[in-house]
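I have been asked to look over a protein record a colleague put together. Alongside the sequence sits a line of tokens, each denoting a local backbone shape. Please read both lines and tell me whether the tokens look consistent with the sequence. Take the sequence as given and treat only the tokens as open to question. I have pasted the whole thing underneath without changing anything:
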Amino acid sequence: MVHSPDVIAELTADHREVDELFARVEDTTPGTAERKELADRLTIELVRHAVAEEEHLYPAVREYLENGDALADKELADHGRVEQLLKDLEATDAGDLAFTRILVHLKTEVFAHVKDEEDNLFVRLREGCHPFVLESLGEKVRHAKKTAPTRPHPAVPANKLLAPGVGLVDRVRDFVTGRGK
């Protein structure tokens, strides 16, 4: 029997992809179109990842872990801060000094969130959930990322953000503008 990666392996792989995108953004010259394009790709990945976690991971945290509500609420607050930074980044010209400042703040927030997830939350999930549950969540997360929005929507409640139309509209806008290529 072949097993798909479980939710922890799936999300950890996303984290490494985000690490790589941050490094690539940092290696580009400030103010260039390439830097803006890489920041757009970073935004797309972070939004898709966050939506998938909000749709599938955090409900499981609430259900399976002791103090799960508090843990999930903390993770959602982290996402809220990151989403607002992504929205600020999207609205800032790559040549503006604020663009780099926002990127640095974003990286700090994302890296702290990732460290907490990998060092604490994922360990607790591994201990508190049956492997079948983790594999099932991995499949759900992979599917959710395919239809998730690709742009930050910090003012939209999570349950509205997960509606299929938001992701579709974002992907159409990306296609028309060439964003994320």
